[in-house]
């Protein structure tokens, strides 16, 4: 997903130079995924790599701030305001039971046939043995844990 820039771009806070190379690398992978051919793929499969990279970028910032405490609050807020990370997805990761959530569409009940959550949210122990689970929205193979 392309970065959305604000009109009043503020200078990045201290510590930005430490995380910028990783964020740029993920951004380059997103561009490659957008330009990748879609021959032989289903319609929904073409956006799965973009969803996965978006998740990876948000998870990177989340881990730096909440788990490792390696970046400051100002830098974290800057990353959220400049759309480097998904604020709503990170808010869900902080809640119990959603620590490994792959995308917000998987918990929206309006997108499913029976008004429930996505199949990737079902624990693997409750599924048939040997059954491959694949989310239609993002390609996740099970984020319930």
Automatic annotation (TrEMBL):
Family indicated by similarity: Belongs to the BUD31 (G10) family.
Signal peptide: none
Keyword Nucleus appears in the UniProt entry: yes
Single biological process term from Gene Ontology: mRNA splicing, via spliceosome
Source organism per UniProt: Zophobas morio
Classification via PROSITE patterns: G10_1, G10_2
Protein name (record): Protein BUD31 homolog
Keyword presence, Nucleus: yes
């Amino acid at each position: 997903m392309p970065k959305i820039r604000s009109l009043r771009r503020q200078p990045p806070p201290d510590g930005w130079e430490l995380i910028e190379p990783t964020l740029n690398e993920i951004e380059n992978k997103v561009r490659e995924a957008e330009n990748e051919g879609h021959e032989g793929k289903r319609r929904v499969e073409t956006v799965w790599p973009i969803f996965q990279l978006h998740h990876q970028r948000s998870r990177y910032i989340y881990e730096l701030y909440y788990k490792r405490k390696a970046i400051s609050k100002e830098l974290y807020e800057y990353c959220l305001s400049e759309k480097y990370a998904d604020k709503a997805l990170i808010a869900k990761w902080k809640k119990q039971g959603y620590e490994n959530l792959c995308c917000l569409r998987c918990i929206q009940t309006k997108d499913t046939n029976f008004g429930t959550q996505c199949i990737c949210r079902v624990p693997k122990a409750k599924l048939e043995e040997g059954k491959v689970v694949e989310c239609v929205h993002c390609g996740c193979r099970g984020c319930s844990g």
